[in-house]
Design brief:
D-isomer_2-hydroxyacid_DH, five-stranded parallel beta sheet, glyoxylate reductase (NADP(+)), alpha/beta
Length: 331
């Protein structure tokens, strides 16, 4: 890079990149003429060391671009005293210290409803897979073990009673898809939705008692952490199924594993885990467990749309315009 070009890059707005997935990182060069992206990950250095080595003063950086589950706690925000914006590529914001952002007046932008259709598609795929034992039968054929595909008891989705936990944009997309299977939709949410006719349950335990399966679509917060505990799992029963496309911490993972090992639950489909990227090893050999590594949103179409949204939010911020998808930080 020539001296003139180097000076031009230094004049671009600086954006620290934290924890982006490979498909998103590969698209960053497309926008390097607009922003000076600083990504410490390839160097293997801590953020603080990376900035020091490359002579970037922490006070010169006004924005962070991050992705769940990479955490942006208060100490990271405090390391960058001039931060005024955190943009996350995820719909959820539980990986960001919103209290610190609120205290310092830092704006936050997220994906909004961009991924709702993708996540809903994943939820239905996981539900059909675990109920119909598709992955289990696939493994059986490929490994040619002593079991046969006929040994797996499966269940159809059509006509089942499905409880949706969190009837936001993702939950509504899940409901729309389940209606095509003739399912009866019930739900639990923070508030009853007056605009929908689905039966509302204020108690998750009562909802589980009534349903064949639960689909978790809500956000992770103090109220929803370990909402799906042993009592809920036992209420769902030995023929019941749980699908989680929300956040891993909504389920008490230790109790989930225990109930599966004890035969107290029919099966689970998981795109998220409580301690990502770590997954309980007990789940690896269970034929009634289907897993995906938190990648429901990583479709080609949504990756491109997310890049455009990220750039749009960054451009709006650096132009002193309203963010496209702001996160409310009100108490």
């Amino acid at each position: 890079m020539g001296e003139k070009q180097s000076l031009e890059v230094e004049e671009l707005p600086k954006v620290v990149v934290l924890g982006l997935h490979g498909s998103l990182v590969s698209l960053i060069p497309n926008y390097s003429h607009k922003f000076h992206f600083l990504d410490p990950k390839p160097s293997g250095l801590s953020l603080q060391h990376f900035l020091a080595v490359h002579n970037h003063h922490p006070s010169s950086i006004p924005a962070i671009l991050c992705s769940a589950p990479y955490r942006v706690p208060a100490d990271v925000l405090r390391l960058l005293p001039s931060i005024r914006l955190v943009v996350t590529t995820s719909a959820g914001t539980d990986h960001i210290d919103l209290n610190e952002c609120r205290r310092r007046g830092i704006q936050v932008a997220a994906a909004g409803g961009l991924f709702s259709e993708d996540v809903a598609d994943m939820a239905i795929c996981l539900l059909i897979d675990v109920m119909m034992k598709i992955s289990a039968r696939d493994r059986c054929l490929k490994t040619q073990n002593h079991s046969t595909p006929w040994d797996f008891h499966s269940s159809k989705l059509s006509g089942k009673r499905i409880g949706i936990i969190g009837l936001g944009s993702i939950g509504m997309e899940v409901a729309k898809r389940l209606e095509c299977f003739g399912c009866t939709i019930l739900y639990h949410s923070r508030f009853q939705k007056k605009a929908v006719s689905y039966p509302f349950y204020s108690s998750v335990v009562e909802l589980a008692t009534t349903c064949h399966a639960l689909v978790i679509c809500c956000a992770l917060n103090e109220q929803t952490k370990h909402m799906i505990n042993r009592e809920v799992i036992l209420a769902l029963g030995k023929e019941g199924f749980i699908i989680n496309v929300g956040r891993g911490g909504i389920i008490d993972e230790k109790q989930l594993v225990k109930c599966l090992m004890e035969g107290e639950l029919g099966g689970v489909g998981l795109d998220v885990f409580e301690n990502e990227p770590h997954v309980p090893k007990e789940l690896f050999t269970m034929n009634n467990v289907v897993m995906s590594p938190h990648c429901a949103v990583l479709t080609t179409e949504s990756t491109m749309n997310m890049c455009e949204l990220v750039v749009g939010n960054l451009e709006a911020f650096f132009s002193n315009k309203p963010l496209i998808t702001p996160v409310s930080l009100a108490d």
